[in-house]
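Pilot study result, target chain (382 residues):
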Amino acid sequence: MESARNELDEPLGRDEQPPQPKRRLLASAVFLLFCAAAAIGVFGTIALKEGTAPQSPSTVQAEPKAEHQIAAGEEASEPETSKVESALPEQPPSITQVGLVIRDPAESAKNLRVAHLPDRALIEQSELGPLPVRAADGRRPFDVYARPWSGARGARIAIVIGGLGISQTGTQDAIKKLPPEITLAFAPLGNSLMRWMQEARRDGHEVIMQVPLEPIGYPSTNPGRYTLLTGAGADKNLENLRWVLSRITNYTGVMNYMGARFTADRKAMDLLFNELGQRGLLYFDDGMSARSLAEEVALAKGVPFVAGDDVIDQDRERGAILGKLDELERTARAKGFAVGSGIALNTTIDAVSSWAGEARKRGVELVPISAVAVDPEKGEGG
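Predicted structure:
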């Protein structure tokens, strides 16, 4: 052992020298000092690891599942998932550290890389699929999934383009061509809705769901399966509503699809708005029915509410659509904001896209639908 230690202590190429006690004593002292420093480093590292991540129930999530577990290419006749565990990845692997992911879910709307990932605290597992719900700490889907905006009080215009999921080409064009400030509304009977929702959120769009409501003239005029009806029982209407709400995640609220008869019936609207209020969702009324009780019921039930000023593409000629957009701009300059809606048709998408660039140059701010909502819970709106 002694000869082995001496060979390591001596420079290469020199003959063996007699032992030198003072040099060995110095080497021993240096060795002990190194050991002490190493021990301090190890304990310090352990302490830092234990104190790095304050773990609270609302911010700590388990290692995510792969993104391919979110359904892509589902048929409209079936819920896209019956178990939220198989449909809701929490984070991309690149931001996962030692099995735990810590983030503020409210930051998802600001960070496009994760805006398509649902916050598990806002999900209720059901037989129909994932349903939106208020978090235990009071946060609502309306708050968490809202697209940020400037907060300025100049002329603001919110535009909602609906019918996404019905035409695959129209859906893709709406997501890619429309400015990210435009809100996109998904038709519950569309295809591949979860996949399209993810793409829309990655591109910065706020999204809402369309709920088919009974029109005047039903069933000759029929919004399709899962329509909420004034003559149906409460259980049937709730079942249909929850099926619609389970079709995607990461949305701030709902809007009517048709519904002139339903929205004029107080009992029917009470049932709808009780559910929306409990789940923390916004309601957008497209303004097509003068008899709608939506605003009155929303205020009574504490539901964030937006009333549309005009439908921009009832006349589907490009010039007519641009004329409606100009009318919205005049309304916004007069009262501070205006709200329009349309359908994901080629003419509508192209007209809105070209108008939006010019409107910005004139000082108009495009905002998501949540930015102009009246929110009874917070006593603010517009």
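One observation from the pilot: The chain has ten helices and 13 strands. A full batch analysis is planned for the follow-on phase.
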